[in-house]
Amino acid sequence: MNEHLEKIASASHHDPFQFLGVHFDEDDNDLVTIRTFQPHAASVTLLSGGKEQPMTRSHEAGLFIVELDRQWFVDPNLDPYTYQFAIQYYSGFVQTINDPYRFLPQLEETDRYLFNFGTNYRLYDHLGAHQATLSNIAGTIFRVWAPSASAISIIGNFNGWDGRIHPMRSLGSSGIWELFLPGIVEGELYKYRIRTSDGAFLEKSDPVQFQGEVRPRTASIVNYLGGFQWNDSAWQEHKHQTSPYDKPISIYEFHPGSWKRDPSDPERFLTFVELADQLVPYVKELGFTHIELMPIMEHPLDESWGYQVTGPFSVTSRYGTPQEFMYFVDLCHQHAIGVILDWVPAHFPMDAHSLARFDGTALYEHEDPRKGAHPDWGTFIYNYGRREVSNYLIASALFWLDKYHIDGLRVDAVASMLYLDYSRKDGEWIPNCYGGRENLEAIEFTRHANSVIYDLHPNTLMIAEESTSFYGVSKPTSNGGLGFGFKWNMGWMNDILNYFAKEPIFRKYHHNSLTFSIMYAFSENFILPLSHDEVVHGKRSLLDKMPGDMWQKFANLRLLLMFMWTHPGKKLLFMGAEFGQWREWNCKQSLDWHLFDENEMHGQIHTFVADLNQFYTANPSLWEEDFSPEGFQWMDFEDRSNSIISFVRYAKNKNDHLVCILNFTPETYFDYKIGLPTGQKYGEVFCSDYSIYGGANTSEQNVFRPIAEPYAQAGFHTRLTIPPLACLILKPAG
């Protein structure tokens, strides 16, 4: 007994159930011994079936024992060993509790096996803190994976953060620890106190917490994710039946902490409810089909923008509760707006309260820093080759799709996952088993994750932020691809922003930047991003990147957006660009909404973006064949001297098409000869130069009759006026 007691008193017992709770005498089966460890109790009384029995303090450390004949418990209205403890503390306070150490293990062997095998895809239903009722007693069951721990306790306000009172039970070789705590309800704070194999103690947040404290505090919060009534069944049915590839997708990327702040208190974040009530109608008015949130998983440092995640299953408490985020998603869906989250399986921070050396060993990360530490970000890299870690991450992705009805995940920093030498010098990385630089474990994890996600949630938008030429990022795994649905087109983004930064007089020398992207436009399912990364760290805002005077800057921005919206590929635009934010994005303050009142051009470009999205969604030629060369045809890509290009976008029905003519100089070209694909009459249907958008209103807005004579890459041609720094769109006029 002394050995067990010593371990209990020092919070080092791997299976406290061997000692605490109900035990039968080996020699006399009718004799029952009940033990409880209550170091803060003056006295403890056993209660059962209306009976009371004082317990004996058998050790000054706080061990209380009672020995009874088993018949003492018999009551036809009760379970055989239903009992409680009435505890009187030294302060005089009396509390009646149920004993956590009288319940059998609850996690099924199959669930443990699947986790260790790497395929327990509903891991979030098993690990973490979950509502449970055992023997008609309500409480919370806690489970955590820490295979190298010698002991683990649950600590919280309910036990004075004393790691001796609620030690957990080890579930053997699974590495999972479990304890049911009667009476623990939603809202309770908790952590795990982990004793490592070398005797050190660590206090850790729950890796599968569903809610955490607001930074800088780091405790987990019990939240069962219940109590919300979803009203998005129509959206879910539509999503289930609708493939996204031949549909319009224009994404509004935003950061919840800096889109807008409380005007009366600029330091206060808006809650998810406040954001929903203000952002959803705003995005609906602008005509975007989707909202993409920068990471809203729990993270310790605002300046990381959410990309250093400490709680992959936890909505950050900066903006409210899980249920309030459900409200946000639900309201988006009721207004037919999809929701995409940034998801970060590439790395995690080194904060002591989180995953780093979780049980005293490199559990989630690699032991060797040449594989396990990221040199640029000061973070740890997940060990994708460990099945439980791979399972943990895949379950995290599925969790957001399942519990929060999320429509897509944009996977951050995929390139850093794929290459062992990413941002490393010679000697700072370890080749794979074939001597190559590819991270084979990460590649297998990515394929596994995408396969499972698409199997369980078929029309999810799985989007890779991948900046290299790695083969088949958005190709099916069955064809040797990574299995994503989409890939950010970083090449187009870099080329086009470099091009627009040039003074128009020099653009003719960089004409290939306009045309090169079509050479590879159909090699992947691309999304064209103008994201947050392009408007920070001295890169300037989109509007401020543009050369020229005020009028030319706005005209250039409209032209950039027109080129993006007419180019093959889905679209993504970061917040602020839709009204011409001058200042670089700063995660610590609101966007500059006051600009609307200072210059009408900000409101004009806002109107332009709304009209552009409306025009986009109304014309299948701009999205039905985004990923097929059948949807695109050059009319003229060789007019370098004038910096003009023209092309056709086709719908599946080739009769439904648009001719797009773009002038990248501030010159107006009169009587300009332009190619057309057919002999039909064409009429102007959209132009970025309209005065309502702040343009010069130079276009003729006539009906044009083609001449049956080839020109450039076209079979017909006509002549028209091309406005300065503008995109002009023609459509068959019947």
TrEMBL record:
It catalyses: Transfers a segment of a (1->4)-alpha-D-glucan chain to a primary hydroxy group in a similar glucan chain. It comes from the Bacteria. The keyword Ligase does not apply. InterPro entries: A-amylase/branching_C, Branching_enzy, GH, GH13_cat_dom, GlgB, GlgB_N, GlgB_N_E_set_prok, Glyco_hydro_13_N. Residues 253-602 form the Glycosyl hydrolase family 13 catalytic domain. GO terms for cellular component: cytosol. Pfam families: Alpha-amylase (PF00128), Alpha-amylase_C (PF02806), CBM_48 (PF02922), GlgB_N (PF22019). The active site is at D412, E465. Pathway: Glycan biosynthesis; glycogen biosynthesis. One of its GO terms (molecular function) is 1,4-alpha-glucan branching enzyme activity. Keywords: Carbohydrate metabolism, Glycogen biosynthesis, Glycogen metabolism, Glycosyltransferase, Transferase. GO terms for biological process: glycogen biosynthetic process. Its EC number is 2.4.1.18. Belongs to the glycosyl hydrolase 13 family. GlgB subfamily. Catalyzes the formation of the alpha-1,6-glucosidic linkages in glycogen by scission of a 1,4-alpha-linked oligosaccharide from growing alpha-1,4-glucan chains and the subsequent attachment of the oligosaccharide to the alpha-1,6 position. PANTHER family: 1,4-ALPHA-GLUCAN-BRANCHING ENZYME (PTHR43651). Monomer. This is 1,4-alpha-glucan branching enzyme GlgB. The lineage of its organism: Bacteria, Pseudomonadati, Thermodesulfobacteriota, Desulfobulbia, Desulfobulbales.
